[in-house]
Design goal:
The protein is an alpha/beta fold. It contains ten helices and 15 strands. It has helices at 12-24, 38-48, 56-60, 77-86, 101-114, 128-138, 173-176, 179-196, 301-310, 319-338, and strands at 3-8, 28-34, 51-52, 65-70, 90-93, 118-120, 145-153, 200-208, 225-232, 237-243, 254-258, 261-265, 273-277, 282-285, 342-343. The chain starts with a strand and ends with a strand.
């Protein structure tokens, strides 16, 4: 089976994740790139041996293209992903699925109507350690989960984005809107839903632009830090922190405190999962290394999406899953702005 792919948006995520992983996939025969900046599209086409489209419609009107990767910035997902589904393409959309529930619903409805596959790139589900942790939690190896804490932080998108400056679109309210919540937080919310097999239904939070400044030296228009309390439908309670100001080291760890002990994920440099039982026994698992901004490994997302099309199976992260996580992030920001507990 030979699959032809179109990529919309040729920024960092396309360069570091989508393009190289499609290139490495044995079933993908060709990649066509589109970007509003034609030079950027040409650069990736040269790098990965693909071709360039002059417009989004060129991609969507091409009957030989089966997959579209929507790597546009957040405010365009509901336009490009919806159009692509309506044009009969399978769509892998970058996260967050959209900036509002209304727009996210447009994408989900377009998927239902088209019958094509839609997956949203919540890549934390795909790491070997998180898959192993899910299995252990489902088997209740440490009994039931009682509480949890999770964090996701690094030095900020200006160290990762395509232009490597603090004029990055991530800092603009009209383009990123959700700040660190839509960049990093939404990953961890999706991960908690996945690992717990549950959904968060109540939140409270604090947020702020504590340190980042834009290209004019003014505080950025979105939050660079969020700290929140979360309660799930089944009654698990926990905390989460999301940050663009972890200067010195990225932190991507999650801890579950269970009836019979503690499970720490990505807490140690050496072991991806550590279990400490009630009576003090320690079990350490070396599974794989975590993908970080500085250390790029294959995320597994592209291979999983190609397989879902090739083998006609449900993608691991559906539009509905992504919508559920978006609702939580929007509630967290509302809770912080209104100083209230918000029920989703």
């Amino acid at each position: 089976m030979h699959i032809k792919v179109g990529i919309i948006g040729c920024g960092s995520i396309a360069r570091h994740r989508h393009a190289p992983e499609y290139k490495a996939n044995p079933y993908v025969s060709e990649i066509v790139f589109f970007d509003r900046n034609p030079e950027r599209a040409k650069g990736l086409a040269m790098l990965f041996g693909g071709s360039v489209a002059t417009s989004v419609d060129d991609l969507l009107d091409d009957p030989t293209i089966q997959i579209i990767s929507d790597c546009s910035s957040n405010e365009f997902h509901h336009i490009f992903s919806t159009k692509s589904l309506e044009a009969g393409k399978h769509v892998l959309c970058e996260k967050p699925i959209s900036l509002s529930i209304e727009f996210a619903n447009k994408i989900v409805q377009a998927q239902k109507k088209s019958g094509k596959k839609l997956m949203v790139d919540h890549n934390q589900r795909f790491t070997q350690a998180h898959m192993k942790a899910k299995e252990m939690l489902e088997n209740e190896e440490l009994g039931k989960v009682l509480t949890f804490r999770t964090t996701f932080g690094h030095a900020g998108p200006e160290h990762w984005g395509v232009n490597m400056t603090n004029s990055t679109w991530f800092f603009k309210h009209n383009r990123s809107a959700l700040g660190v919540g839509g960049d990093l937080g939404i990953h961890k919310i999706d991960l908690l839903h996945y690992l717990l097999g549950d959904e968060i239904e109540q939140v409270s939070a604090f947020q702020g632009a504590l340190d980042k400044v834009d290209e004019n030296g003014k505080p950025i228009e979105v939050c660079d830090n969020i700290v929140c309390s979360l309660k799930t439908k089944r009654g698990y309670i926990g905390t989460a922190s999301f940050s663009w100001t972890y200067y010195g080291e990225e932190d991507n760890s999650t801890i579950f405190y269970c009836e019979k002990g503690i499970m720490k994920i990505y807490h140690s440099d050496e072991y991806q999962i550590e279990v400490i039982t009630k009576d003090g026994e320690r079990v350490k698992y070396q599974i794989e290394c975590m993908q970080t901004n500085d250390h790029q490994t294959s995320s597994g997302v592209i291979d999983a999406f190609v397989d879902s099309i090739r083998l006609d199976k449900e993608p691991l992260v559906s539009g509905e899953d992504a919508l559920a996580s978006l609702k939580v992030i929007l509630a967290i920001l509302k809770a912080a702005e209104t100083n209230t507990v918000v029920t989703i």
